[in-house]
Specification:
The protein is of the alpha+beta class. Helix content is 29%, strand content 21%. It has 13 helices and 12 strands. The strands form 3 sheets. Strands 4-5-8-6-7 form a 5-stranded antiparallel β-sheet. Strands 9-10-11-12 form a 4-stranded antiparallel β-sheet. α5 runs antiparallel to α8, α11 runs antiparallel to α12 and α12 crosses α13. The radius of gyration is 19 Å and the shape is globular. The relative contact order is 0.13.
């Protein structure tokens, strides 16, 4: 591990003024310390933002729920406001890791975590190509072990997925991310915060390394969620074991019902792309549909038509379809 200096930010301005490629910001540390250990990052300066006052708040402000970026996963998951108005986010946070990790990990840090691709998550020097680690060397996972990798939005340059559970719930809820940098504050829709490899290519950015809309000098201040009275939601996580494991596929669903009829629905999949994947065609098809397994399955089928599996992850298509239907049934109380 490379030696580095350590500084504590007492304010947001302290954190955002510490700009540069050799500066890394740390809060809970459950993810970034792994980056240093593996050689993913080698900062000259580590700035601790975890003590900035007010960034761990969880409060309702009129028709919005505001959750600070430094709120821990356990604090978010166990908060009564979140459990009542955004159950899907509470469930996603409490399924994200072991309790000890959730007590340290922050919501902002979890959303910014990097892929769990085995080719990427190895100690330096890597014995194989990885465009995320070494640009223009290739993607070992593209034709290698890729059963956990993307079925949407990938390119030949990278087939990695985004592993965050809360990110999927936040995208389902149409949350906005409040960020601040040297040029002030701005809001980014959670559905556009992360970037797929195809989206990066369309923007003429590095397909493997360009992952979020966050600028180098910006930090996440808070998440803003619109409170929708009468909406119900649920999160479903499918993994190889119940604890200490990342999702093979996850699904976050939110529905508004009139009896057994769906007035509005939102559904997002996790671990299928380098961003939470909204099934927008499914959402359109569900308006006015019955909350039944048959109607849901037909609508979900419409949203999965763009799926493009790799050699070893075709199972994710069937798994994602079933997870989406199950999550919608759970959200509507019909499961």
């Amino acid at each position: 591990m490379k030696s580095f200096s350590y500084a504590t930010a007492a304010s947001i301005e302290d954190a955002t003024n510490a700009d540069g490629t050799s500066v890394m910001r740390i809060a809970g540390g459950t993810e970034l310390l792994n980056w240093i250990r593996l050689g993913i990052s080698a900062p000259d300066v580590v700035v601790d933002v975890g003590r900035i006052p007010g960034l761990d708040r969880i409060e309702r402000n009129e028709d919005q729920l505001v959750i600070g970026g430094l709120a821990t996963l356990n604090a978010v998951g166990e908060n009564d406001l979140v459990r009542w108005h955004a159950k899907v986010l509470s469930e996603a946070c409490l399924k994200a890791a072991a309790p000890q990790v959730r007590n340290r990990a922050t919501l902002a840090g979890n959303v910014l975590q990097k892929t769990r691709c085995e080719y990427f998550r190895s100690e330096t020097p890597l014995p194989w190509p990885c465009n995320k680690r070494y640009p223009e060397t290739g993607c070992a996972a593209r034709n290698g072990v890729n059963h956990r990798h993307a079925i949407f939005g990938w390119t030949a340059a990278c087939v990695a997925t985004q592993p965050s559970d809360p990110a999927v719930a936040l995208a389902c809820l149409d949350a906005e991310v409040e960020v601040q940098g040297k040029n002030g504050r701005r809001l980014i829709p959670m559905t556009g915060f992360h970037v797929t490899q195809q989206e990066a290519a369309a923007a003429s950015r590095d397909e493997a390394r360009y992952e979020t809309q966050l600028a180098p000098d910006e930090i996440i201040i808070a998440y803003h969620l619109k409170v929708r009275e009468g909406e119900r939601s649920a999160y479903l996580k499918i993994r190889e074991r119940e604890s200490y494991e990342y999702a093979l596929v996850s699904a976050a669903a939110a529905v508004t019902l009139d009896g057994g009829t769906i007035l509005a629905a939102r559904i997002a999949l996790g671990s299928v792309a380098q961003k939470p994947w909204r099934l927008t065609a499914t959402e359109r098809a569900l308006t006015g549909a019955a909350l039944s397994k048959e109607a849901l399955a037909s609508a979900v089928e419409a949203g999965m038509r763009d799926a493009c599996p790799l050699a070893h992850n075709g199972y994710k298509i069937a798994m994602a379809k079933n997870a989406a239907v199950r999550a919608l049934l759970l959200a509507g109380g019909a499961a």
